[in-house]
Design goal:
321 residues, alpha+beta, Ferric Hydroxamate Uptake Protein, Chain A, domain 1, 2 domains, four-stranded mixed beta sheet, 14 strands, globular
């Protein structure tokens, strides 16, 4: 073998080692013996301090456009969102309200007859009677969305411009099955002295699944435009895990996404090495196992706008659509 051939072979061998010797996402990278370990750790710590990033700024998010709500058997009603106040001022700041507050607004104006009460054991308002009928629920979705099953408390469901909102009758059995999970959440919250502790948090990324047990979820007041200080939302799960050093993240503000003209929320753009791209990224769900995925826990309320009481689980997972 001549000298030129030997050099080419050696370069090919070194290149092969370079591309085959990397670690998978779940494996730690080893530090070579000729490196200063303390210096390397200092660099890792410096990078970690900058690992959790928030891109974009909150814009003007108050609803200003004339809204519509359809009530089964009664027709369509219009309302001015700037005239609607919230009955959950423990949750919403002035200028923001839930889809339930729209009904209260219509009742206060004398356009509908409705009686309701606050159930402390479920941490939610309940419609006792509307138009002398019982067992009411909602069918709601944001701009660019579609009809979906949801078991989220409707007095915590934030109203947005251009959303579709219908109030429909359902069965007493269905409502009781939903209310049972609310009671379980309040019981869990009380057992933890008012601290939200999720028994299970799952993160399914491209490279594998991480499961965390008994995760304390703290408020980070990311959406201080909408919510009162101390209100905990689903996205606080990600922030709490990162704060504890288990994961890192990027959040990205979106004014709109595709056909959804009114989004105005932060989305989880990255968890660890998995970064959203094209039509792939992280979505989430939270609630009781009884209503797993499309049974009611997975809906299109952005996780920074979904208030949580004390869910049985929170799950973020990678999906391509």
């Amino acid at each position: 073998m001549n000298t030129s051939s030997f050099i080419l072979l050696l370069l090919f061998f070194l290149f092969s080692l370079t591309i085959s010797g990397g670690c998978s996402e779940a494996e730690p990278t080893e530090v070579g013996p000729n490196l200063d370990l303390e210096e390397e750790l200092d660099k890792e710590e410096a990078r970690a301090e900058d690992e959790n990033r928030v891109f974009g700024e909150i814009s003007d998010t108050e609803a200003v456009l004339t809204g519509e709500i359809e009530i089964e058997g009664l027709g369509i009603f219009t309302f001015n969102p700037q005239e609607v106040n919230t009955v959950r001022d423990d949750v919403f700041k002035e200028g923001y309200f839930s889809i339930f507050d729209v009904l209260v607004h219509l009742e206060q104006k004398g356009e509908i007859e409705m009686s309701y009460y606050f159930a402390e054991d479920m941490n939610t308002y309940v419609i006792d009677s509307l138009d002398d009928r019982n067992n009411w629920w909602y069918d709601a979705y944001y701009d660019g969305g579609w009809r979906e099953r949801s078991v989220f408390r409707f007095d915590l469901y934030p109203y947005k411009d251009e959303m579709t909102l219908r109030i429909v009758q359902t069965t007493e059995q269905y409502l009781e099955s939903v209310y049972e999970t609310y009671r379980d959440e309040v019981t869990r919250l009380n057992e933890n002295d008012g601290v939200i502790v999720a028994p299970e948090v799952i993160i399914e990324g491209k490279g594998g699944t991480m499961v965390f047990e008994n995760v304390e979820i703290r408020a980070h007041n990311l959406r201080d435009d909408i919510f009162q200080p101390g209100v905990v939302t689903a996205i606080d799960t990600i922030l709490s895990l990162a704060e504890a050093g288990y994961i890192s993240y990027d959040l990205q503000w979106h004014e709109s996404i595709g056909t959804a003209g009114v989004v105005k929320s932060y989305w989880v753009d990255r968890i660890n090495d998995d970064v959203s791209e094209g039509r792939c990224g992280f979505v989430y769900e939270a609630g009781d196992e009884k209503f797993y995925f499309f049974q009611g826990n997975h809906n299109h309320i952005p996780s920074d706008a979904r208030v949580i009481t004390s869910p049985e689980y929170v799950k973020y997972f990678w999906i391509c659509i």
